[in-house]
Each structure stands twice: as C-alpha cells, then as structure tokens.
Amino acid sequence: MYKIINKTIGTFGFCVGCPANLNCCTGRRVDHPVLTQDDLQRIHSYTGLEISSFSEPDKGSLSNMRSLNGVCYFYKSGKCEIYDQRPIDCRLFPFDVRHNSNGKLILIWYTDSCPQEINAESYISIALTLINEFKHDIVEYSNHVSPLLDLRKYKVVGELVLLSNGTWDLHSKKEIEYV
After folding, report:
1. Are strands 95-99 and 105-110 parallel, antiparallel or unpaired?
2. Residue 74, pLDDT score
3. What is the rounded CA–CA span in Å between residue 3 and residue 120?
4. Is residue 2 part of a domain?
5. For position 21, what pLDDT does the model report?
6. Strand ranges inside the chain, DSSP E
7. Is 34 helix (H, G, I), strand (E, B) or coil?
8. 98 is in which domain, residue-wise?
9. DSSP helix/strand/coil, 52
10. CB neighbours of residue 87 within 10 Å
11. Is 75 helix (H, G, I), strand (E, B) or coil?
12. What pLDDT score does 10 carry?
C-alpha cells in the first residue's frame, strides 16, 4: 500500500512569486519528473488512470512522467491536475537528493534553475520534512538520472544521515558550488 502524504508539504511557495513567471512544468528547463513506485500508485489511485498512460519506465523501479509536446502530462488549463498528489520530485524542486563522490546521500539546491534569488535556508526544513515523509523511497529516488539538471550548477546543502530512529537528518551544511 502506498503512503498517504500531507498534500501541503513541498517547496512550491517560492514558485508562486516567480518574477519571470516561469512554469517549469511547461517547458524544457528541467527533466520530466521522476516517479517512485509510491508516486505511481498514489497518482493511479487519485486519477484512476493506468500507470502506463502517464509514465514511462526508467532505471530500476523508477519511472518518468510522460509529457505532451514538452508539457507535463498533468499540466492542463494552467494548473497541475494532480497537485495534491504530485510526485516527490515536484515537491522537492529546486532541491534534489543525490549521491556525492563518496556514495553518501546529499541534499542539493539547483542554483541556476530559478530566475530569482531565493532564500534556500528558509526551505531546507520543508525539504527535510518531505524527505522524511518519503523516507523509504529516498534511496530509490536518489538513483535517478536527470540529463538536463545534471548539467546545472548546484550547491550542496548538506549530507543526509539516517538516524537510529529511522528518520533522516541533515548534517554538515555546506555552501560548495559545483559546475
């Protein structure tokens, strides 16, 4: 059974005030959202659609959201039709969970994805709450490949550490920029 999530958790708050009025759901600025098995089941249950109609298999148990002419499958009439059940990838963006060169999980922030300067610090606690909502999917999710985003600059926010109580915590916050 998939996990029911708190629909209000996500980093979307700063997107609403985007001064460039960009909508990353409708262009080719970012890759199509990565979908975990829980994302697939939750969206299927919410929409009643067959999973294969809105997703394409990717690496391992991950899938990618389908698009129609470069626009997210569920973005219609100026809004996300599954906003309350949107995937972890959409909720985290412009943050992401990746592996560093030592194989450790890190939380990163794509610094050139947003046209505005955002205060990432104010969203870190939201991102960590979200990571803990999806704790069983985070390692699976971190294995995704994002060809467009892999070319972008990012800052390492910190290393994600799994605590003995089964929750993720953020350690050694850094501001290291990579190209």
Report:
1. antiparallel
2. 92
3. 27
4. no
5. 59
6. 34-35, 55-57, 63-65, 67-68, 71-72, 75-76, 79-80, 95-99, 105-110, 154-162, 168-171, 176-178
7. strand
8. 13-178
9. helix
10. 25
11. strand
12. 59
pLDDT the model gives residue 141: 82
Closest by alpha carbon to 34, among 113, 79, 91, 105?
91
Task: Name the maximum alpha-carbon separation found in the chain.
Answer: 45
Domains identified in the chain, total number: 1
Q: Is residue 114 part of a domain?
A: yes
Residue type (1 letter), 61: S
**pLDDT per position in the chain (179 positions), as tens?**
445 555 555 555 656 666 555 667 776 556 788 898 889 999 999 999 999 999 998 877 889 899 888 788 998 887 889 988 888 888 888 788 888 878 888 888 877 666 555 666 677 888 888 888 877 778 888 877 665 556 667 788 888 888 889 888 888 655 444 43
Distance of alpha carbon 77 from alpha carbon 149, whole angstroms? 26
Alpha helices in the chain (DSSP H): 13-16, 37-47, 51-54, 88-92, 121-133, 138-141
Cis peptide before 87 (omega within 30 of 0): no
Is residue 21 domain-resident? yes
> Structure tokens of 34?
């990565």
Place of tokens 């610094």: 111
Would you say residue 6 lies in a domain?
no
